[in-house]
Amino acid sequence: MLDGLERILAWYLSDVRPFFPGTAPLFCDARGRALKPETVRDRLARLLDLEGRSGNDRFTPHDLRRACATHHYEQGMDLVTVQQLLGHRHIAATMAYVRPSMAFVEDAWRHATLTAITGLAG
């Protein structure tokens, strides 16, 4: 469902967003007000229903937020920056969002182990 997301966002920014020049929200309703979270959640659920997505293939805007946080962390963004990006007050909340893949964890472990061994070997 997220294939071609760049094209969709480019279309939105060039062809739709200009209809709301005096509004601050990036994504707004027909009246130019910020979309409510439940509106986004409900519309996404409806689209997933239309596609016939089953339980494991379904996701929510919150899942996308977690995926974004994890992606940024795995690409090297430090946890405090991810915290700022998400607007969390406490780092513990951000830590609950970031769910690195097992491959990422294993690679980090290998790198740390190699660094320790190299340091000990002198």
Plain-language structure description:
InterPro entries: DNA_brk_join_enz (IPR011010), Integrase-like_cat_sf (IPR013762), Integrase_catalytic (IPR002104). Residues 1-110 form the Tyr recombinase domain. The chain has 6 helices and no strands. By secondary structure, it is mainly alpha-helical. The chain has 2 domains: 5-57, no CATH class; 61-121, no CATH class. Helix 3 (61-74) packs antiparallel against helix 4 and helix 4 packs across helix 5. The chain is elongated and about 65 Å long.
Rg, Å, rounded: 20 Å
What class, by secondary structure content? mainly alpha
Q: Give the strand tally.
A: 0
Distance between the termini: 51 Å
Strand percent estimate: under 5%
Number of helices: 6
Helix content: 55-70%
